[in-house]
Design a protein that fits this description.
heterodimer, A: mainly alpha, MetI-like fold, 13 helices, about 70% helix, B: 14 helices
């Protein structure tokens, strides 16, 4: 369509105020998000220590990641282990408690508040410090086990258990997915349950045939959020291992590894490559989740 | 739910109180287990040093404020300074997020302009971007600007609406405000800025409050940002102060550590007590992370 001068000026007049409103965000988008994203892609092909100009080294960083970096493999293993255990555990707790609370129980707001509180406080470093003490050799967990005659190890300094104390910390924060599940459960029309009752369906049957399918969009959402969150987890591992990812790299979360490379050794180029690998991994997992969602996520037509 | 059919009713009536008793017992036990670590920490902050590790009890045998006294001035700079720094960052971040995000959200929700759809798609995309990808170039940029070891890298980005999530949240809310209000304002001669200020914002206090509360919690709890940007103890936030306590290999004064940890949680706890409604609704409707 040929645009008359009048039309152009009209469009401009329409666009001008909108873009004024968007100015701060656009500046941030260009200067703090898109620009840095492109620069970090460039840096990932360089050797860069922050003080001297980046040296182009081609795909060396990626080759090293793929073939010659035992720490990368260790951090991948730890992070995957964390994601595949912490996420389902957290969501199962969340769903179970939401189901119980949704049965018209009195005192619901109080229970909901109590279960939600750890989610709210859990991201604080204070809680990470507390966790480190709870699971220490002379910590509270072992103090609670002692009356049963169990002499617990130092959970956080034994590479066999150190990760599990962090999984537990994550599962402890099941409150916010629970609140989302509760909101989702409210949306399920009660007449479906009534019809099922009339047909003589058992409670389990109702859960499997009504609740679960109708809740799949919420499960999907919670799953994506919890997964992305778990992949990027940093503070608890940092505090519990005093920034080392130890013992024996057993808590070397991926984000912690990036931090160590970037700000411990000033391997800024290599850390950028690691960050891009993380981006690709998260993107792949999110894409898989979205692509498979049409087979298991039920959207009301 | 429908009442059970009549033949079932007597059986249910006798079973129900017991069933509900069991459920409540289970829920109370779970609640206690959930809160136990926090309560233990609170108790530990009032216990004398020798009692902390020997006891799993939630009631101090000997009540002392030593932890608070020695913790408050336990580092070369006292904790008041850290609280002040954290508060400065948090309050300015709230201002930044509320202003910049609501401006952008207003444009996306209420104005027609070329490029709206692709820009909104980009906005959604940036919400998924892991922060690690932008981290290093941002650091290099702030380093070259001479902003490292100042509070600026923790505050300025908020005024440029980098927390895209809040824009999204506000867009959802603004879209729900009846269009008649905006049209009436326009007929009365309001320009877009006046519509934003006089018609939309006054009706948006719930979403603004939710955004403010979550911004406060996120920045108050933020550890990674201060960790990489702040090195001068005088500029430390509460998170960094706490970390300094436990950084050494042997922690001598756990009472002080737990006392300051408890204090660090107080602001978030207060927000929770007074604004729980906003928090729960914010989570239930938008699925914000924490």
């Amino acid at each position: 369509m040929p645009s008359s001068p009048r039309r152009t000026s009209q469009t401009l007049r329409k666009a001008a105020p909108a873009y004024l409103f968007l100015t701060p965000w656009l500046l941030g988008l260009l200067g703090l998000t898109m620009g840095p994203t492109l620069i970090s892609l460039y840096l990932s092909f360089t050797s860069f220590d922050l003080f001297q100009a980046p040296q182009w080294i081609g795909a060396d960083n990626y080759l090293r990641i793929a073939t010659a970096d035992p720490n990368f493999m260790a951090s991948m293993r730890v992070t995957f282990m964390f994601v595949v255990t912490a996420v389902p555990l957290k969501l199962c707790f969340a769903l179970a408690l939401a189901m119980i609370l949704n049965r018209g129980i009195s005192g619901l707001p109080v229970y909901r508040a109590i279960f939600y509180l750890p989610s709210l406080l859990g991201s604080s470093i204070a809680v990470a410090i507390l966790w480190r003490q709870l699971f220490a050799g002379d910590g509270v967990v072992n103090g609670l086990l002692a009356p049963f005659g169990i002499q617990g190890p130092s959970w956080i300094s034994d590479p066999r258990y150190s990760l599990w104390s962090l999984v537990l910390l994550s599962a402890w924060q099941f409150g916010s997915p629970m609140v989302i599940f509760l909101a989702g459960l409210r949306q399920i029309p009660t007449d479906l349950y009534e019809a099922a009752s009339i047909d003589g369906a058992t409670r389990l049957r109702k859960f499997v045939s009504i609740t679960l399918p109708l809740l799949t969009p919420v499960i999907f959402f919670n799953f994506i959020v919890a997964m992305i969150d778990a992949f990027q987890s940093f503070t608890p591992a940092f505090v519990v291992s005093r920034g080392t990812g130890g013992p024996l790299n057993s808590t070397l979360f991926y984000a912690l590894y990036i931090y160590r490379e970037a700000f411990g050794f000033f391997h800024m180029g290599y850390a950028s490559a690691l960050a891009w690998v993380l981006l690709v991994i998260i993107a792949i997992f999110t894409a898989i989740a979205f692509l498979t969602s049409r087979f298991w996520v039920y959207y009301d037509a | 739910m429908l009442e059970p059919t009549s033949p079932e009713r007597p059986a249910r009536a006798t079973r129900r109180p017991l069933a509900s008793l069991i459920v409540h017992a289970l829920l109370i036990a779970t609640s206690f287990a959930m809160l136990y670590p926090l309560l233990w920490m609170l108790a530990a902050s009032f216990k004398p040093q020798e009692e902390i590790f020997s006891s799993t009890s939630l009631i101090p045998q000997q009540f002392t404020l030593d932890g608070y006294v020695s913790g408050w001035s336990g580092l070369s700079v006292d904790f008041g300074r850290f609280f002040l720094n954290s508060l400065t960052i948090s309050l300015l971040s709230i201002a930044g997020n509320l202003i910049a995000c609501s401006l952008a959200a207003f444009a996306f929700a209420r104005l027609q302009f070329p490029g709206r759809k692709p820009l909104f798609a980009i906005l959604l995309l940036t919400m998924m971007l892991p922060y690690h990808v932008t981290l290093i170039p941002q650091y290099v940029m702030f380093f070259n600007l001479g902003w490292v070891n100042t509070l600026l890298p923790l505050i300025v980005p908020k005024f440029l609406a980098v927390d895209a999530f809040f824009i999204f949240m506000m867009v959802q809310f603004f879209r729900g405000i009846p269009h008649e209000i905006q049209e009436a304002a326009i007929i009365d001669g309001c320009n877009p800025l006046q519509v934003y200020w006089y018609a939309i914002l006054p009706l948006s206090t719930p979403v603004l409050a939710t955004a403010a509360i979550f911004t406060f919690i996120f920045t108050w709890d933020d550890f990674f940002g201060p960790l990489i940007y702040l090195s001068d103890v005088r500029k430390y936030t509460v998170s960094l102060g706490l970390r300094t306590f436990v950084d050494g290999t042997g922690i001598s004064n756990w009472g002080a550590v737990f006392a300051m940890s408890c204090l660090a949680l107080v602001p978030v706890l207060l927000l929770f007590l007074f604004f729980q409604r906003f928090l729960i609704q914010g989570i239930a409707t938008t699925g914000i992370k924490r």
